[in-house]
């Protein structure tokens, strides 16, 4: 029997181009998360991060959440959702007011933040995040808490992340169709950075490259903030398609070849290692299955990787990530699970590169501890910290329900919708 609905639970859903995964966790008094259940389904209606088939996406969301509910033995109603489609932009807005040298009170800070909220101008985009970061006192930057100090001028820097409104609304609509409410929609780089990067990484400056199935997000962190974003319409699913096309096999076979035998680095022995690429039907018929060398497979992978990593290098340059060689790049996402990818990327980018894996959480299954689940884990961590936002979650994104609905309620609603 499932436990009663518990509003203290945190449920995260990562809706990607290759998979939709869900995680249910509970935070203790110290903010440490314990994973209660996870679920995963193939993403059947998402292309390049955008919703292309609402019914298929809704079904995958429903199945992933119900799998997590079954393992956690509980029912959930509201979720935190990641947004990874292109069109994300990041900026830092600055607001300043005159105080006349008085001692700063809480009301002064509240008035400043209220003015900052009114000054947001997303230029037709939907603001996903608007977080106050550091304050300024008479030009002095980097003040974390100005309360009680004297100043003639008090200012604040507001970190703003915005996106095109239609893809965000479509994402929220899919979740609503699965009879779930939305606590917040979180930009994927924010969630992934929370799970893969340390506070020192974000302060000193680092580049995070999310190598997803259909989208690659390149983001820069400095001074504790996400200061630059670029989205590339390419991902590891393109490698799978290249393999399927090159050897005239199914995508499922190509995906298995990539994951089991693929690599970003080649070696002399690859020419002597032969791989069977025949379908199960061909093997069952007793036909001699076709074979390729591992070197041929890696050649196809490298051709796509060369194009992919060149685009990443250009994005880093366009974002201004130039300078000392010691500055690091962190690769994460499903594409970062390819064997030898860090060494390959280091040679192309000419910078120190490492694979970013999510921080270990109590109860997190090994199958969900790789770089492909960094966004999911980070989303739960963002939900646990619940950072202050100047802009509440937009009304058009919020999902409302007339009554709480767990697993049984969703089944009843699904039956009713068929009549």
Overview of this protein structure:
It is a single chain. The chain is of the alpha+beta class. It has helices spanning 54-72, 106-119, 165-177, 188-196, 199-204, 236-247, 251-261, 280-284, 294-318, 341-349, 374-385, 407-417; strands spanning 9-15, 19-27, 33-42, 46-47, 50-51, 78-83, 89-98, 126-137, 140-143, 153-163, 181-187, 206-211, 216-222, 225-232, 274-276, 291-293, 328-332, 352-355. It has a five-stranded mixed β-sheet, sandwiched between helices. A five-stranded mixed β-sheet has the order 14-13-12-17-18, sandwiched between helices. Strands 7-10-8-9 form a four-stranded antiparallel β-sheet. It is globular and about 85 Å long. Residues 1-5, 395-405 and 414-419 have low confidence and may be disordered. Self-interacts. Interacts with FtsZ. Cell division protein that is involved in the assembly of the Z ring. May serve as a membrane anchor for the Z ring. It is a peripheral membrane protein.
